Amino acid sequence: MNRHLEAFLEMMAAEKGAARNTLAAYRADLEDVLSFLNARGEDILTCQALSLRAYLASLADLGLSERTQARRLASLRGLTKFLLREGIRQDDPARLLSSPKARPGLPKNLTEAEVDLLLTTAAGEAQKGPRGLMLQAGLEILYASGLRISELLALPAVALTRDAEMLMVRGKGGKDRVVPLSETAREVARALRATHPKGAKWLFPGRDGRVPLTRQAFFLALKDLALKTGLDPARVSPHVLRHSFASHLLGRGADLRSLQMLLGHSDIATTQVYTHLLSERLQKLVENHHPLALAYQEGGKVVPHPAADEDR
C-alpha cells in the first residue's frame, strides 16, 4: 500500500502543485486511516464504504472537531478517487460518504492599536541586531500584505531588489498574485537584505543560509515579541496578523472581492468568513445616518439628515 500512497502524493505535487506542508498533512491523514483499516484486517484496496464510515465515526468518538473530520475525509476521497482513476480499484468507496458540517468560526484578530504596539516594539528590537531586524521585516510585510507565513518565508532575496510598491507572491497551488507593500515594509526589507552575504538565496534565511527560516523559528520569535509588548502570546501568530490585515481593511471600507484577490483565496466563499464585519459596518451606518435612528438620539424628534436637501 505504501507505493500507492507515495504515487498519490507524487501526483498531488506534480499535478496539483501541493506544497510540502500540504503533502505532509495528506500523508498524516492517510496513514491514520490506513492504520485503522489494518487493525480491522482490511486495506484501502478492498475496503467498502461501511468500513470508512466506521473510521469517520471513530474520529467523532475521539472528540476530533468537525473541521478535522472533514479534512480527513477530503484526504481519503482524494486517495480513493486516485485509485479509481489509475484502475487500481474498480469503485470509489468514499464517493457517497457525508462530510460533517464544520461550524464556521470567526477569525481571531488584533485591534489596530495592538498591531501598532506590536510593530513599535519590533522596531525597537530591530536596533539590537539582525534577529530583531528579521522579525520587524517579517511583521511589516505580513501586516502590509496579508501573506501566509509559508509565502513570506519562501520569498527569495531578490524579491525586493527594486523600489516597486507591489510584490509578486507565489501562493497555494503555485498561483501567483500581486500584493502591496508599505513604505516601511520596503525600507525594513532592504535593510534586512543588506545584512545578507553576497549571493544569499532567501530574504529570510535559516541559520546555514541554504534553506529559509522555519515557520517554528519565526513563530517562537513572534511569541517572544508578544511578551515584550505586553500582549498574550496565545493571541499572536502569523495567521492572526493575516486575519488582522483582512479585518482592518474591511473595517475601513474595502470590499470582499478585492480582499479575496489580496488574500489569494480561489473561492469567494472562503473570504466570506469576514462578512460579520460588513454586517457590523452596515449596522453602524444605519445607526449614524437613518432618520429614525437620529430621532432617538434627539430625544424622539425626527431630525432631517444634513445631506437630505442635497440628495433631492
UniProtKB/TrEMBL annotation:
Report domain Core-binding (CB) positions. 1-84
Q: Which domain of life is it from?
A: Bacteria
- The protein depicted here goes by the name Tyrosine recombinase XerC
Query: NCBIfam families annotated for this entry?
Result: PRK00283.1
Organism lineage string = Bacteria, Pseudomonadati, Pseudomonadota, Alphaproteobacteria, Acetobacterales
Record's family?
Answer: Belongs to the 'phage' integrase family. XerC subfamily.
Its gene is: xerC
The UniProt entry's GO CC annotations, sorted and at most eight, read: cytoplasm
Question: Keywords assigned by UniProt?
Answer: Cell cycle, Cell division, Chromosome partition, Cytoplasm, DNA integration, DNA recombination, DNA-binding
